[in-house]
Amino acid sequence: MPHFPWQSIALNPLAAFGILLTLGVIGGHIANRMARLPAMTGYALIGLIIGPASLHILNEELLRAADLFVNLALGLALFESGRRVDLRWLRAERTLLLSTLAYCLLVFAALYTLLCYAGLNWQTSTTMAAIGMATSPIVILELMREERAEGQVSDRLATATALSSLLSLLAFAVSLGSAHLLQQHRTTDNLLTPAWLILGSSLLGLLAGVLAIALKRWLGHQRQHRTVLLFGLITLLVGLAVMLDTLPSLALLVFGLATRNLRGGESISEPDLLTGSHFFFVAFFVAAGAWLQPQALASHWALALAYLLLRSGIAMLFWFALAPANCLTRRRGLWLGLALNPLSGGSAMLLSMGSLALGTQASSATACLMAVLVISELAGPWLCRLALQQAGKLSKEY
Amino acid sequence: MLEFNNSTPLTLGVELELMIVNRRDYNLTRGSDDLLLLIDRQPHGYDIKPEITQSMIEIGTAIHTHCSEMLQELQAIRQLLTHNAEKLNLGLAGGGAHPFQHWSEQQIYPKARYQLVSELYGYLAKQFTVYGQHIHIGCPDGDSAIRLGHYLARYIPHFIALSASSPFYQGMDTRFQTSRLTSVNAFPLSGCMPCVENWAQFNDYFQDMAKLGIVASMKDFYWDIRPKPEYGTVEIRICDTPLDIVTPTLLAAYAQMLARQCMEQQWRDIDPAHYLTYSYNRFQACRFGFDGVLVNSSTGQQTSVQEDLLTTLNQLQQHATALGCEAELAALRARVLKRQSDSQWLRDVYQDSGSLSDVVRRQSNYWMHDQPD
Questions:
Q1: CA A304, CA A114: separation in Å to the nearest integer?
Q2: What value of ipTM does the predicted structure carry?
Q3: Is the pLDDT of residue B82 over 50?
Q4: Interchain pair B30, A151: CB under 8 A
């Protein structure tokens, strides 16, 4: 009997990536037009449906083949998020800086207490509380673009998001160090691990910033070349950070921050990188949905829900209380707090970095975080968009 | 019947429309509400109000007799605005038009009048996101205001060349010194005041237009110069908002000196023939600035805007002395001799950086902090 190719058909990475993008766009469109949900919720839902947890059209191996695009999307978002931190503004408006610091500390303390109370050991609690401090830059930036949000709520949201990511990464690096301590590594390791993660990543980001500005000057008025250059440097930075065992997210945030605040870097991403990056973002959200494991909810739904509610509740109350000091009305402060809801999509990657150090509790922490992410990836964007709408910052046509 | 509220002759006031930009890519941003809310938290007594789109804000001075007092007030308003804008991470900038904004992204300010304008004029209302300086000159009565309006029409190209600061529009170099006036020209009631001879005739004209349902108030006229009966002034509306805080006072001083000359000479030469070359001369100044060629409708003689300006400035010496604005006259003369214009400065910045974002960033530093470089 003859053998035909379709009898043993298996998707190759290219076909899988095509499916991921095509179905993602369709899902986003349906979510947006029919269910009035943010497009990214549609992307994630499609990912969830076609991913390993459901229809298994895309398996883990194929999803890993899309990692290049996913990492690039995350890199672009973190770079752009870093560029939203204007140190000149923070000098003039110290309240925003101090508020964000206080907010992050409060979230950290509350989540840590909750997780310890739920029976997790202090290393795992510290790591997961550190992750919970951050708001997702990619979700915030994409929603602000999708909804054309402008004004004080969105400006403060973008800055608080970037700063919370920065603080979260710093806290994560320190918690890894402390986890090493418990694993009875040498003392030098306990100090070197966080120091390398923080300083190495920051130095990489800073060097990339200086290099980008120098190359921009050299390229002169060639705007298209400048855009390609930035894509190139972002990709290189992600790659180098992984090769050197540093934190790619921190390096990219610092890269963005450096180009925004060093002389000569102000207009480095003109035209706006994000407008040309939608392709990567669709891939990111579909892949993020595909990696979700809803079965984790069965065992960890209560803790996940408590984790998210506590985080949102603190954010809303905190920004409500400090709204007048932040040049906002109380109502807008409340919605700013809600808008900070989406949890960073890179959390799972972070936790996997720390899984060795967490030892026996690693699987429990991963399952708990997965349950948190299932809820957050689907509800977070919707809540954030609702908050932006309520804050009255979205387009109103007259 | 329009009542002209008489005012002290030759008193002055200016209004400046300013851009509100974000400090990320320096595009226009909807910041007027937030800025006004913050400013109004503290008592200040200045005239600061929203404009047709949410990326505009307008400031107005009190009534002054001398430009130096006006400069002091403008500096105080700027300090207030800058302090609050920095808290909100907003930039404020002069300039007649934003270099790369897209008109379709602008949003009409939620105020009844602006919504009516938007309903009537459609996309023209959003394209009207341009920024001008208005100069008010006090007049003793309506007849004087009509005479002064016609008298100043001949000097409109001078004001255009001196204030031109909008060479870029929608991301392109228009090759004009001011592109702002092209947006104004699209309105059906733009251009110049009809050739009426006194306040009674003007009133008749207004009543006719009102009966025809074309206008409801003086605000419906988008003329380059128009009487403002409620203030008792003539309002020159042709200037782009200059990039710095000093130039508006120089322009006001120039208007004040010309007005004094008109009143002292008891000028009455109102003639439709003078308007034959009005649009052409206006275009020349918009396109070429100081290098534009002006045609005298009476003699047919052609002169450059620069030459004509220098001649006029020389004739104004006695009025400058009488008004105490000799320093302003000297500053104007120096600028004209050097052909110093904001448009050229903007082009130089663009040449240097290749980025329109950078242009607006430096524009904003210029207006907020007097830092041209």
A1: 11
A2: 0.83
A3: yes
A4: yes
* Residue B3 covered by a domain: no
Whether the pLDDT of residue B108 is over 90: the answer is no
Q: Which residues pair with B57 in a beta bridge?
A: B18, B50
Task: Residue window 291-330, chain B: list those with CB within 8 Å of chain A.
Answer: none
**Residue A327 to residue B38, Cβ atoms within 8 A:** yes
The rounded mean pLDDT for chain A is 86
Decide if A280 is inside a domain: yes
Neighboring chain B residues of A88 at a CB cutoff of 8 Å? 23
Average pLDDT over residues B230-256: 97
Comparing CB atoms, the residue among B23, B110, B118 nearest residue A89 is B23
Q: Under an 8 A CB cutoff, do A272 and B25 touch?
A: yes
Does pLDDT of B330 surpass 80? yes
How many structural domains compose chain A?
1
Q: Which domain CATH number covers A268?
A: 1.20.1530.20
Query: CB distance from B30 to chain A under 8 Å?
Result: yes
Main-chain phi, psi angles of A155, to 5 degrees: -65, -45
Give the whole-angstrom CA distance, residue A140 versus residue A150: 12
Q: Quote the strand ranges of A177-249, DSSP E.
A: none
Q: At what angle do helices A152-182 and A94-117 cross, to 10 degrees?
A: 40
A331-366: string of b/e by CB count within 10 Å (b at 16+)?
ebbbbbbbbbbbbbbbbbbbbebbeebbeebbebbb
Residue % of chain B over a pLDDT of 90: 79
Residue span of the structural domain in which A107 resides: 68-389
Distance of alpha carbon B85 from alpha carbon A97, whole angstroms: 17
Asked if residue B4 is part of any domain, the answer here is no
